């Protein structure tokens, strides 16, 4: 059994992205987006994503529809939908997300968005194949 006090774990991480757990069908990731930062516009063709916001405020943009989100909100992004989350507040935006199937390399830690983007572009951030 894996057990996390997820809001506490997420709040204690200053990393842009940290993979906490990877299973065969899903993956749990925590993220911290600095003030003025964003996840970055993206599409996961074959991956559903569920994001739960622990602290901070953001604009959630999914397929061109924009909504404000804050602590306690949850956003579902079905596979194939263009999306981005932009921190609109003065404090870090902290969230956890579940991907199904996994999207990132098991145990991956990316301290900044730039580091995360570089790992993806170089092929170092590929999900497990089995």
From TrEMBL:
Keywords: Isomerase. Residues 30-99 form the Cupin type-2 domain. Residues 105-130 are annotated as: Disordered. It comes from the Bacteria. InterPro entries: Cupin_2, Flavonoid_dioxygenase-like, RmlC-like_jellyroll, RmlC_Cupin_sf. SUPFAM superfamilies: RmlC-like cupins. Residues 105-116 have a biased composition (Basic and acidic residues). GO terms for molecular function: isomerase activity. PANTHER family: LIGAND BINDING DOMAIN PROTEIN, PUTATIVE (AFU_ORTHOLOGUE AFUA_6G14370)-RELATED, QUERCETIN 2,3-DIOXYGENASE-RELATED. This is Mannose-6-phosphate isomerase, cupin superfamily. It comes from Micromonospora pattaloongensis.
